[in-house]
């Protein structure tokens, strides 16, 4: 085999389209781009996804329902009903809950949810509280404090 034997297969190479060379060539004058308008000018027509200034589809879609939040807030959540077994007037933080075994994993800052009954006064320090959790803590005679995450 020699270097002159390495040629493309017959029919695989096509001639380039020579536009603007007269009407006999088939692509004369306007070169197949029509008469006037944005898509007939030199250079690129419009970028992909451009809708003439209207908010394009790829920017409209994420504003609709059922799209996940890009940077969600992750909390270690616990219901106030789980804290009923703790002794009265104890200070409840994420660290103390991990030590006592009420919470087993640290998934982020502590957040108290309002499900369950609480009848023990506790001093709770957490990053976030639901309104139901706040009411139940106060009704039991305890206090709550929001700490920085």
UniProtKB/TrEMBL annotation:
Residues 23-35 have a biased composition (Gly residues). Residues 77-145 form the Large ribosomal subunit protein uL15/eL18 domain. Residues 1-55 are annotated as: Disordered. It comes from the Bacteria. This is Large ribosomal subunit protein uL15. GO terms for molecular function: rRNA binding; structural constituent of ribosome. The keyword Iron-sulfur does not apply. One of its GO terms (cellular component) is cytosolic large ribosomal subunit. Part of the 50S ribosomal subunit. The keyword Ribonucleoprotein applies. Residues 10-20 have a biased composition (Basic residues). Binds to the 23S rRNA. GO terms for biological process: translation. HAMAP family: Ribosomal_uL15. Belongs to the universal ribosomal protein uL15 family. InterPro entries: Ribosomal_uL15, Ribosomal_uL15/eL18, Ribosomal_uL15/eL18_sf, Ribosomal_uL15_bac-type, Ribosomal_uL15_CS. Keywords: Ribonucleoprotein, Ribosomal protein, RNA-binding, rRNA-binding.
